[in-house]
Fold each of these.
Amino acid sequence: MRVSALMTDEKPDRGVKLTERQVRARRARSIAIAVALGVLVILFYIVTLVKGPAVLVRPL
Amino acid sequence: MSVTTSHVEPSIAGVGDYIALMKPRVMSLVVFTAFVGLVVAPDRLHPVIGFVALLCIAVGAGAAGALNMWYDADIDGRMARTAARPIPAGRIAPGEALAFGLTLAAFSVVLLGLIVNIAAAALLATTIAFYVIIYTVWLKRRTPQNIVIGGAAGALPPMIGWAAATGGLSLEPVLLFLIIFFWTPPHFWALSLYRADDYARAGVPMLSVVAGPAETRLQIIVYTLILAPLGILPWILGYASSVYGAVAAAAGAAFLLLALRLRGEQRGFAASKQLFAFSILYLFLLFAALLVDHVTPALFGHFGA
């Protein structure tokens, strides 16, 4: 009886509830980070093609 | 026994707030002067590598701006000009700005070193460190010479551009450094003349606050008297054409004229505002003339040569 009551009871939500504005801001930031990472991947690819084997040369 | 829990409010910062943190207007001037330094250098970079160099310089400048806003959030909140910035306005937490600035700084310097060269990366790291540590943390709140010495940070980008292309330095990029270095005081002191109340409220010892408007106007004229001939020097030393020389001479004369007009400024700040606006145009004209000087022959060949 006690166990079934516990199982059916809804747990109190203790997590952080984001407002609509916070959700939108987080989504915009996530998209910006994804775009920045995508641009970097493309950039590194092109730089590797441009530099060829010299991409591994690190004169100090 | 009491239990305390720390609660961090979820961020409402948008992408625009992070862009604002990077001071895009300052960044545009940094990128432009660095671009000119890169183009006037004798060695040519592959366009993609040149683009990466400028990207790193732009991101490095943005990092310096973010770290400056992180440290200065308290005084920014007391000045009308800066109160709406993301940290004092409460849209970005100081810790977020610090992490953002440090990440971008490390990223830009390492990338510039790996893809372009170590000399340019070292100069970029010096620029960021100089702006954040020497100017923002040390000088800004302590001495009216803050923007004179701190101006070195803003003057370094053409040298970074030159070093990116050549891997070293010579007299020509040092001249470009000196032009921006001596341009900075009259530029910021013109602004400080009509923002003196703002700076006083924030406790920033700008020259106009500490020594008064009369001394500030005199110092502006003194620095302009150094700047105007310095601007012509690239032509005199044979680094630029007579077209550049004519532009630099005319712009320098106009700069000096506007600086001298400050002496008659009793009420209102029309002359200060005019000088501030013109100072931006002056720097743009000089560097644009240098750019045209070096790009035009490459595009059309040397006629009559």
Amino acid sequence: MSAQVEHAEPGFIHKYLWSTDHKMIAMQYLFTGMAMALLGGFFIYVVRMQQGFPNQYVPGYGLVTAGKYNALVTMHGTIMIFWVAMPVLIAAFGNFLIPLMIGCDDMAFPRINRLSYQIFLLSALVLLSSFLVKGGPFGGAWTAYPPLSSSGAYNLTPIGATLWLLAVALEFVAFLLGGINFTVTVMNSRAPGMKMYDIPILIWMIILANVIFMASAGPLIAGAVMLLFDQTMSTGFFDPTRGGDPLLWQHLFWFFGHPEVYVVLLPAMGIVAEIIAVFARKKIFGYKTVLYTTWAVGFLSFVVWAHHQFVAGIDPRMANIFSITTLMISIPVTEMVFLYIATLYGGSITLDTPMLWALGFIAEFLIGGVTGIFLGSSGTDIYLHDTYFLVAHFHYTFVPIAIISVFAGITFWYPKMFGRMLNETLGKIHFWGTVIPFNVIFIPLFITGLAGDQRRIYSYAQFAEQSRPALQHLRTTSTIALLVMLAFQLIFLFNFFWSLRNGKTAGANPWRSGTLEWTVPSPPPHGNFAELPTVYRGPYEYGLPGAAQDFAPQNLPDSALAGVMKS
Amino acid sequence: MSAAAKPVANTRSATGIPTARLITWWVIASEIVIFGGLLASYVMHRLGHPEWADAASHTNTWAGAFNTLVLLTSSLCAVMAHKAADAHEGPKAAKLLRLTALGGLLFLTIKGFEWTKDIHEGFVISSGGFWPFYYLMAGLHGLHVLAGMVIMLVVASDAAKNRELQRVECIGLYWHFVDIVWIFLFPLLYIAR
């Protein structure tokens, strides 16, 4: 059966904005996410300049006022999580790779897929429109606790707060639509012969992430409607004087918010799994155990949320339980990392750029995980809560997830997406120029946080007793390291766009990988496979002894494989 | 909207469950979590505020009970539509689906009279306590009834021409779900004292 159909060249709108092709939708998500990342990066540049060089003119922005500072911090957090990590990790990679890796021509429901991106784009536009309204964008932090978020009299951004809420709700709708479509596609549309345990780990992880998202986002959607009504119709869901309860929001938010960490972690872990198998030329050590630990993580992620509320006045006995579950969830995550390290053991490792990023992910995420132990234990958390220690811990988990693993994925699949190779030298310069400054940004913040620096303080001019002038050089160091890291991203952007035209032609399978997406031309044509494949084995058959070709692609029957081996 | 444009991915069934039915179940699962969060929030508040029973006693239990009957009857029509679709009797399925949608309309009309009365008596969404939950939960459910009716009429217009008959079952599943949500809302909002 030929899936390729001849088409007349469609017009611009039809090709780039109205396409139902999963690869085009992936590109829409990827480029929207990258554009939003530039914006989120610019905001944190302004915020860090205020911390490093307080109350001075910020080049490219001007003077930072207290209100603007709050809005910039809020927008940085919101954008990086909801409009960068989610669309790039789940939607872009998921859209591009799911049909290719499971061997079919498109998503099961291409028009739902298109609708998902359109709603996502609308949500981004709604968020950006809040910069144009009176009062400016919402400044009540990405967690939007009431009463600060529910009352315009407190947050001073009544329109911005409502637009923020609408944007987040729309974004959730987009990802529910997309995620359900992904899940159904992987459940039903796999190539003949691809059994449950022949599915590449990345696809498993994206699906489990979507299921976790779906199961956790619902209560927050309900909560978002309540907050919207509190803002616009003074309903009082979160107002204790009228029978409401502000803590309800914290429960609804974190019942979503903590699983959300694993929603973005799992795809990142999946990307790393694909890459280390290829560049260590080894089968993933304990494929099924990786999945078991993932299920354990997914389950436990629903019973840890109140560790965000240790200082919110919850019952200490309850805090005990949530401390224990929080420490428990580090066990399966650690096991997963051990399995990856075991995969590396004895492999014939080549350090191409994607592999550097993958190894960088493991190393940096470990630091994030270990520092989480201090925050998950209610005793130490009461001291460390809302300090820069928490900020540094959070970024040691989220930068590996949303930045490092994304660069791993982009450098690895770029040849498949665009048919050309990225420049290796520039790639390596970009890797070291990102990872080293990243550590220099956040290690000082661990120290200032331990010393007691509170996050969300705009200027110590108003909080002289908190200013600790002896620590200012650490704050400044962190800011300068951020400037260096941001500057190195220009190398990536140059490499990305220069290689589109000038990179070496990639060929179908430049990394000698065994999964199905590498059996089609780069970039894959409309309909993906000239002939839809049948699957004969698992995804990670590498390092076959005594063979010219040391790997067995999923789509070759054993008989055909013998021919390849002899040659 | 041509059926010929369906990708191969849409026609495969590795699980043995038809793709349309599978996605409907996932949509229902995600809806359960949304209503679940709302119901749990309400129940926790209700347990902490015994005085909300006074407000709840203003609701008209008989109107609620009659609406329950209306919804259950409309669900019966949805089941019969499914049976007709299985027998490839598209026009009959379409007729039954339109009857189901009519049940939804009757439900919303009665709801409209109830709300008008409540609002005239001064119980509005900003009255605090029980009332915001009452309006939010019943309102969200009402929106689902409305959405179900619209989709049902679209499916019916296709089914009348014997097209996309698998959708009759899917909209029926969704309608039963909306029905079950009401089965939870009715005792929680009307009966519980």
